């Protein structure tokens, strides 16, 4: 049974943004962890060919952001996009056809999975129905919910175990040595890059061992964070595919079930 929540108390705010163009600098090349120079596509714009459910790695890319990369050119409005959007929020591209998609997570931008992404271009405006921050699980007081649209929760492999713990199916368990870039940041902003993790898909639910994301992101023995992979290949040292945090709390509060199919994509 889906855990009881305070969803009826949450507000919905419509946020405005636009598809950000890919951006670079005049030098072009970056250097990977072995000192090799590379020049590859990645952040920003509209990235075709990778959607939720597809492999997150193995692409000729750096800081891969699937789908639409959405921002707002006003810094304060952009921070609202980052902090208030949640995985599963509905996104509408404003135009004659008004195609709709769903928020995948946050990175440098808010990432949107959209079936008709090939009809969208940088500069196109979007509206996001932001809802989810402030969501609580009423029967699991030790578990903090982050970045999750309450309408997505009933479709996730999440329920209450007979012993009262929060049972969550995960496609992978991430060792404590993997978290890199993103550590120390607010867990409602961007995501956590995972070093050395290669066999995951966009949208996979993963469990991060000894990670406490209640008041930021950092190592804390005996805690756990569970998120959905929202970004793909990264070649810079200390970077990698990354999950957006959905649940966090003491490890003892969770009952994990290993399931390689645990992915938000089949549950939109």
Automatic annotation (TrEMBL):
> Which chain regions cross the lipid bilayer?
none
Name of protein: DUF4438 domain-containing protein
What's the source species for this entry? Saccharothrix tamanrassetensis
Look up the domain of life of the source.
Bacteria
Ranges for the DUF4438 domain?
Answer: 29-153, 156-265
Cross-referenced InterPro entries? DUF4438_C, DUF4438_N, TM_1086_sf, TM_1086_SG_dom
């Amino acid at each position: 049974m889906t855990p009881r929540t305070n969803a009826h108390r949450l507000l919905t705010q419509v946020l405005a943004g636009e598809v950000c163009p890919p951006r670079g600098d005049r030098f072009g090349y970056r250097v990977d962890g072995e000192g090799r120079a590379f020049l590859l596509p990645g952040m920003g714009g509209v990235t075709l060919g990778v959607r939720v459910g597809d492999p997150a790695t193995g692409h000729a890319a750096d800081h891969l952001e699937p789908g639409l990369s959405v921002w707002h050119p006003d810094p304060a409005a952009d921070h609202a996009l980052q902090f208030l959007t949640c995985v599963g929020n509905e996104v509408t591209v404003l135009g004659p056809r008004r195609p709709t998609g769903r928020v995948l997570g946050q990175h440098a931008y808010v990432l949107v999975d959209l079936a008709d992404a090939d009809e969208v271009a940088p500069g196109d405006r979007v509206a996001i129905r932001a809802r989810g921050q402030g969501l609580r699980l009423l029967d699991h007081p030790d578990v903090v919910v982050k970045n999750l649209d309450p309408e997505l929760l009933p479709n996730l492999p999440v329920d209450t175990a007979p012993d009262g713990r929060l049972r969550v199916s995960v496609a992978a368990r991430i060792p404590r040595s993997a978290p890199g870039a993103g550590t120390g940041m607010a867990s409602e902003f961007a995501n956590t890059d995972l070093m050395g993790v290669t066999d995951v898909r966009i949208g996979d639910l993963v469990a991060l061992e000894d990670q406490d994301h209640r008041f930021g992101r950092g190592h804390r023995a005996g805690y756990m964070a569970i998120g959905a992979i929202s970004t793909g290949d990264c070649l810079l040292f200390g970077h990698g595919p990354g999950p957006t945090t959905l649940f966090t709390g003491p490890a003892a509060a969770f009952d994990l079930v290993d399931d390689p199919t645990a992915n938000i994509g089949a549950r939109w």
